[in-house]
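Provenance and format

Records in this collection were gathered into a single text stream. Each protein contributes a sequence line and a token line. The two records reproduced below are adjacent in the stream.
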Amino acid sequence: MLVIVTENIPPRLRGRLAVWMVEVRAGVYVGNPSARLRDFIWEQTEQGLESGNAIMAWNTNTESGYDFKTLGENRRMPVDFDGIRLVSFLPLDEKENAL
């Protein structure tokens, strides 16, 4: 299974992702493509992302049973911890701290 979650992407990329996957909620795409098609979909996402951000997660033969990639600006960053992929949070910037 493949899941892609997007934020602030252009409508043409939303339509492109919907060609290969089902948009189950706004910006959340689910499908079961081959590894080759998964890589192609990610290339298309990279090319059309503009100022948005995206994460792609899929099941694979690892300790956790899944892997993921991210694109764009986001506080959550993937970190490898002894072969296990975890998510680290970057500190809030000064504008967000003031809110």
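Adjacent record:
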Amino acid sequence: MSYFEKKFGKYALSNLSLKLVVLYILGYVLYYAWPGNALSYLVLDVTALLHGQFWRIISWLLVPPSSGGNLFFVAIMLYFYYSIGTALERVWGDYKYNVYIFLGILLTILSALLWYVYLRVSGLSGIDLAGATRYYASCFSTYYINMSIFLAFALTFPEAQVYLFFVLPIKVKYLGWIDAGFLVMSMIGGNSADRFVIAAALLNVVLLYMRSRSWMSYTPRQVRRRQQFRRSVAEGRKSSPGADSIHRCAICGRTEKDGDQLEFRYCSKCEGGLEYCQDHLFSHVHVKAGEAPHMMKIEK
């Protein structure tokens, strides 16, 4: 657990995926109630924002990833985003998921401002500048944030399977490559606004990978095991506070009683059901039954 998580983790919003879906539903209600008008007052139009329409810095979150369309497919899309977001929340924890989502929101806002500066430097007149920002404002929406959420899901659950068109099973990592390829091609073939907002979404994924490699690539089995571990620890502490420890690292001997921040996982490649703490899970030598666990040798 990082210093910032210890200090600010208590402020993290729980069920953030559900809150985002509720915002999208409100956006769809506005779209169908006032088609063609309501969303135009919500999008991230930088020119309008700089002219006093300050609500736009937040209201664009109400603009759903896809406006209109068949309500059945809209419901499926919202359920899909809710499912993958909730899965990430369970594995990462509320704090890390909050950081990823709100950083994506902040980067999207910054990309819109930088794009506006780019247009000003390009020498557009005031009228042309206002028209351009109004026309392309819808590019700066939650659409690419949701695309980045799926990329994060593919990084975290690469071996998970989804059913494409409800029939064809395919691993998420392959869909992740397709998603990344689509974003890159959209950057190359899109307009300047697309390039800025897609760059912001991809930067969020890169920053996620750089700071989170130690807790990425969970399989569904590891997710279930992690949840069972937390339940067993909670039940053990509640039923018998003075009982012996439930989990112990095979390398350093630490248990869950040595700190609330410690996490333990079984190694599927070691025989004998050995457990390791997060500091030694990736740095031990896999052992066979009867062998003593030990650390990897580090060449100087």
